[in-house]
């Protein structure tokens, strides 16, 4: 043991020794408190307390993120290894859709998918460039098969309510079309991206683009660019011009939204999309500005459906497809993939009865020797008021000969079949004449021909003519309805308020976007271009005592045994029962002794209204029994030019009016359709003062008294059963009260100018009473 003195102080085992650096003893390792182990001079972090313990440190956060990245990468790698390029899916070899009557019998099959594959070299370069400009301008220059940014943007737009977005490259769209399906799910999108990446490594850009052009859907049941060229322009793909190629490329975005022939109202949207495609071609230098300047919109030709859709079958399929699309049940692309079994509400017996009624009362009366008979078109629709089910639909003589359905088109004036909506609106709004008399069926109006409509601020510049310029003098609303007097109804619309009349028509079932449904006094004369089916829905609302529900055309849809959910039909009291039943009571006298007496051939209680469009371009009869509402329209259209034509001389008649052929056809159909059903009486609860025997409600300040016995006979019959020229004076003696019903106190339009529409252009006013 060394004798040298120790250089270190002995450990004070009692712990009584004081540290030279503070008031605390050193740790067991000789470190001072607060000093990090192994790091002389550094203090340890204090322990987290309270809420800080719940907050992860930056080390924890970074570690978690790195872990997630590793897991995500591993997942993508595993998915890439596990997901193989599958065989072609059903949409690449689509099945037919089957359309059925309500009893399960087959109406039609929409045939095999229309597809003819072509080589990419057969497609003109300008057409290829048009498709690239529309769908993926960077397809050839970008090696990526998936556009991640576009997918994220599309997902964000969808989540934030800006509509479902695509965000897919051409490679992804080809994968979706050929290998997967059209459903919008995260799983399908992920598989699409993985398969697209793999496919991009195994096939060339040209192979992928060729496959895309051959599998894409262009509408009109045309799959692939060759089928589309034939369907829209009747030529092979090699013959397509730049303009035509740009139009076909536009269809890829939404075929049903850009077909300007099936839906003429689509033209503005189609032209905007077409211009977008051409603009993209110029921007990418695939088309010069000079060539673009000389390019004109190439209107496609009429569709040429297969013979499997001949007769009424094609019209029905067209209406069903439109119904499914508009109601958000199945869009056109999804339905076109095939395999759907669609049960309609159509009753086979009633459908056959409608076809026979038209054949007997219209087609049989045509002659090849009369030029006017070439222009005759017929549309019809029939609805059960209580359920809203469409049980019969007549679109035209043959779908393969006349592509546009006369049952659903919206380009013909409805004429005087609109007048009942004015009366219903008057009752709903408890309207009065300018001198304060409540408007009822017995209210007296001045039926003078070309009588100027008067508003709250005085006379307007609108003076509609009665049919054949007949003066009726003082006449009740009931008689004015029987004889369809224009001067009375134009004034009554002004008294009620044109905007209120429009609102009532919409409530009854006329679509708000109906062309020329303009809030002006002329609305009463039927300037609106509603379809036959629209009018049937509105009249069904009146028949159901004012309860309205949208019409129903499809009862059931299944695919692969699974049933697709359909929207439930709901009803509401669109107008009061008093208003609907008062209108029904007045329309009964139209059939009993007015312009619609030909409808009496139905052989059971029935009501209805006749109508004639401007220049006799269309003649209508709309009517109902308690259990069936139906509308028939005979229209004039040049088969070569598509222009509307007057019906003068058609069917061997000087004029075709609503009370003639349309009413006769309606009666023949309704009698056959209800032949096996017992006749029902109307259960009506009209508004007070509406009965024929009620005293006329004249304001106490009006001159003279009222004498019901001197009112015109509402049951007086015209000289014929059709709405032909009435006597030069109205039947029956006029009430002694003068026609003081000018003007209106409901704040209606003070302008009698029958102009309107979005562009402010003039609206043609029907000049026929019936």
UniProtKB/TrEMBL annotation:
Residues 385-640 form the Penicillin-binding protein transpeptidase domain. Residues 40-51 have a biased composition (Basic residues). The chain crosses the membrane at residues 62-83. Keywords: Carboxypeptidase, Glycosyltransferase, Hydrolase, Membrane, Multifunctional enzyme, Protease, Transferase, Transmembrane, Transmembrane helix. Gene3D superfamilies: Biosynthetic peptidoglycan transglycosylase-like, DD-peptidase/beta-lactamase superfamily. SUPFAM superfamilies: beta-lactamase/transpeptidase-like, Lysozyme-like. Pfam families: Transgly (PF00912), Transpeptidase (PF00905). One of its GO terms (molecular function) is glycosyltransferase activity. Signal peptide: none annotated. Residues 703-732 have a biased composition (Low complexity). Residues 741-760 have a biased composition (Gly residues). Residues 1-52, 677-770 are annotated as: Disordered. Residues 16-30 have a biased composition (Polar residues). Its EC number is 2.4.-.-. It catalyses: Preferential cleavage: (Ac)2-L-Lys-D-Ala-|-D-Ala. Also transpeptidation of peptidyl-alanyl moieties that are N-acyl substituents of D-alanine; [GlcNAc-(1->4)-Mur2Ac(oyl-L-Ala-gamma-D-Glu-L-Lys-D-Ala-D-Ala)](n)-di-trans,octa-cis-undecaprenyl diphosphate + beta-D-GlcNAc-(1->4)-Mur2Ac(oyl-L-Ala-gamma-D-Glu-L-Lys-D-Ala-D-Ala)-di-trans,octa-cis-undecaprenyl diphosphate = [GlcNAc-(1->4)-Mur2Ac(oyl-L-Ala-gamma-D-Glu-L-Lys-D-Ala-D-Ala)](n+1)-di-trans,octa-cis-undecaprenyl diphosphate + di-trans,octa-cis-undecaprenyl diphosphate + H(+). This is Transglycosylase domain-containing protein. It comes from Streptomyces rubiginosohelvolus. The lineage of its organism: Bacteria, Bacillati, Actinomycetota, Actinomycetes, Kitasatosporales.
